């Protein structure tokens, strides 16, 4: 923590040099919140596009590269420190977030099953290959999506308009980003915005730590995939096959569990105390703060 603070305050000796970096008007634009947000999203998005569906460990390597791109944009372009991706305590944050994500999906699936919506059958073979594929793919997805939506977009918009506007806008766009998936519709987009956009945004505002949110997101997606439930409309191979019965409002239909009313209600219920804690900890910002 002391190291990042020291680097932050030594990033430029003169006011003009620190703000513009010798780039004049272009430098000011790039170093504005929207400027570094867009620069980072292009870089992280490019890495994700090139590695997300790669073979073997390529998605994990892509996640590492995405973190490096994020660090570079934040430190060299935005001229700010990056405590949200600090290695100290990262393992603890991943485990804490992962526990919440695991419980969230298991309880949601159990409730849907209890109401007659799901029945599961063991798929029968390929245990290690299925688990390996799920883990590496979901690491890549969780890291890159959280860097894009919570690391870049939420923090940039928060500087401009405060935390409440930032979480509302990023949640909306998170829902819109999933509208192109198989089985998506207006309801699934709204469901994703509420249960995922709001919950993950609240998780970041509470902990101010990307690794916590990555752990939550990773456990969420991986548990869904291993249960054989479509992940946001995508139906990769899992350890189980799931038969769906009843209304789409209960089961999520072809889009999967995330379009069910159960996780929507649970997600909002979990997000509210996170936001309360964030407010008590001073994690809710109401206006742009100079010098960040």
Automatic annotation (TrEMBL):
TM ranges: 34-50, 56-73, 94-118, 130-149, 161-181, 187-206
Taxonomy, superkingdom: Bacteria
Recorded GO MF terms: hydrolase activity
Pfam families with a match to the protein in the record: Rce1-like (PF02517)
Positions of the CAAX prenyl protease 2/Lysostaphin resistance protein A-like domain: 130-222
EC number(s) reported in the record: 3.4.-.-
Keyword Transmembrane annotated: yes
Keywords: Hydrolase, Membrane, Transmembrane, Transmembrane helix
Name of the molecule in the record: CPBP family intramembrane glutamic endopeptidase
